[in-house]
Predict the 3D structure of the following.
Amino acid sequence: MRLIFLGPPGAGKGTQAQRLAERYSLVKISTGDILRDAVSRKTPLGLTAKSFMDQGSLVPDDVVIGLIRERLKDSDCRSGYVLDGFPRTVPQAEALSKILEEQKTTIDRAISFEVPEQDLIRRLTGRRSCPACKRAYHLDFQPPQQPDRCDVCGERLIQRKDDREETVKNRLRVYAQETTPLLKYYDEQKILSKIDGRGSIDSVMNHLLEVLKGVNKGQK
Ligand code: AP5
């Protein structure tokens, strides 16, 4: 299965992608995680990306397209993947279509997680992330077993710099302007499914699994 997860910051894309990937042995490819790793290692990619990310703006298309083009060549992608946070602009979506065409593959479904703005702000400002294994927690909705420690790898949890309220508001504006046109793009390709991203993490997962059953049967 090859999937795209769309949705505003905090909609739960990463949380659901992680669970789905573990359940079905898919690769979770998060451009945000790849870029954050590059920033923390101060690589040339990280040095380019940092100022955009700190402001909650998008990293230039050519940078992320190059990164995905290389990542999708890796052999682990053959068993299927979830693209979490890519594409985010129409030029990125068009570039992805080209890459897939070259690879003679297609995307099975683009899933949009829909969550109202006031919930997103609460989710993001309360999020804590594991810098090592990339799991997300939430102080109220998904607290770690031990305060400030990742349940899985024990690493100290951090608050992402771009999860502060002012930056979150800019990220939401950028999503509305740059990424919402992709809903039309994938709807026209008849591969878009919208999922209500409110409710518990488990109930959103159940809804997602229902939609994916339909994908296997070729339904919308
Ligand atoms: P990225 O890391 O992709 O951030 P994002 O898209 O803004 O998404 P988030 O990771 O914030 O949210 P999510 O939907 O994954 O939510 P999560 O599951 O964590 O990108 C960061 C930056 O990198 C961008 O701003 C940009 O600069 C750059 N970038 C990345 N990709 C790019 C691209 N393609 N082009 C250009 N630039 C790019 O959940 C959020 C919180 O809510 C967590 O605390 C979680 O525990 C909690 N939660 C999840 N589900 C629920 C639920 N159902 N109920 C209650 N709480 C929940």
Remarks:
- The mean pLDDT is 95.
